[in-house]
DNA sequence: CCATCTCAATGGGGTATGGC
DNA sequence: GCCATACCCCATTGAGATGG
């Protein structure tokens, strides 16, 4: 493989594209013809296998698939064939698959089905999975049966297993000996699933071991199998499954395979909908989101290679696929744009946290979302909480922000005010929430710790801001400099960074101005004190 | 029960960039 | 210059949550 970013990782920047060898191209084409025709989860396994075979990165293969689709679509448009080109892929694949289905369904699969599943039209899929009307093909049953059976058996599987995409070998049903690669021939389960589907796109149920959320559910299944029965209520935050999903799974737990009957008519053969199984959707816990936001604040704001390390680290920390992280970033970017908040520039290199455990919030440690509050963009991150109050507050302060240069001390003072007020809101909301929660679970402890930390930081910031305001009002530059020198470490760093950026841009060391806005802020401050 | 909202997931368009 | 790759942006879908 000729990947520039691999040859020169240090200089890795955007758009260092791969150049596929003829062999890689051939393999890619082959996989495309065999069903790797979209970027959805339904093709994850194929993409993964293709990536393994071509020794390319998963995302590279995935991107190639997307571009390939576009290329074919544009060609089809030019030929006036419309969507026939793409559908031809489907149909040809599907019809061929239908023709070979009988032969592909090998004796070993049939044997596995009969051994593991009993009646041929029953399966172990969760009811919600079959609700998509797409998961009920007998073939899917074979696949999923194997997965679930394997998972129930895999006592060593836990959260750590999911840190990377599990290879198909790991999840392989013992009864099936898949040959790799499966595309050129051989009787693999995957080939069955792909070739049998006339529309192997959105509506096709993916081999579920590829879905991160499915893996989360599998983890849960493992948990409830290996441990004493748990109430499927509020989780510890380790799982990415929603309560509802857990309940569904728990309910499914009680359903024997014979109780769920699949739809023999296989509606996915006709459906063109994009309906997915419930477990497709990743559910981030509060702690996961908190972690993601920390990475975001550290510059994980781009999907490109610049943030590759951070994305990988975040994926590793949360035990999800990097694609999930990328999707989260993409959606967050969109959210920022919709709200008119400037997206922080991406920062390369690995992310460094003083302490990786979100449960331990030390005094010196930067407050989540606040640590880089003096950076112009992190303000948005800070205020982009999911509650409307903070967002509203951000809008209210737009005017103030617009008046500032972006790197002047006045801007920083403004930011500090906003930070202060937001902290106050957080504290207030936390207090409100705390009063309603029994102090017995992990999340409450987490909130307590965070509250304590926020209180301390709030107190420090408050006194600092007050002193700084006085100095600004008195135009006491010496005092200002003293105060800036005594800034808390993290804030100080950001301050220096801001000044440094300012110097780099050729600007002179700014003096604090904007007294009018400052006095307005002081009034706000007074109001807040009241 | 229904309407509404949030957000993960997905595909497609536009385009910058690098290799040939 | 052309083409392939990579990235960003956007619209859309649909599951789940929530409120009336």
Shape: elongated
Estimate the helix proportion, in percent: 55-70%
Rounded to an integer in angstroms, the radius of gyration calculated over CA atoms is 27 Å
Put simply, the count of helices is 23
Q: Average pLDDT across residues?
A: 48
Query: Main sheet?
Result: 2 strands, antiparallel
Series of H and E elements: EHEHHHHHHHHHHHHHHHHHHHHHH
Beta-strand content estimate? under 5%
The number of domains is 3
Roughly how many Å apart are the termini? 65 Å
Q: Uncertain runs with pLDDT below 50, 5 residues or more?
A: 1-15, 81-280, 356-414, 431-444, 490-530
SS-based class: mainly alpha
Lateral arrangement of strands in the main beta sheet: 1-2
Give the number of DSSP strands.
Answer: 2
Written account of the structure:
By secondary structure, the chain is mostly helical. The chain has three domains: 2-280, no CATH class; 284-353, Orthogonal Bundle (Arc Repressor Mutant, subunit A); 370-529, no CATH class. The chain is built from 23 helices and two strands. Strands 1-2 form a two-stranded antiparallel ribbon. The radius of gyration is 27 Å and the shape is elongated. The N and C termini lie far apart (65 Å). Mean pLDDT is 48; it is low at 1-15, 81-280, 356-414, 431-444 and 490-530.
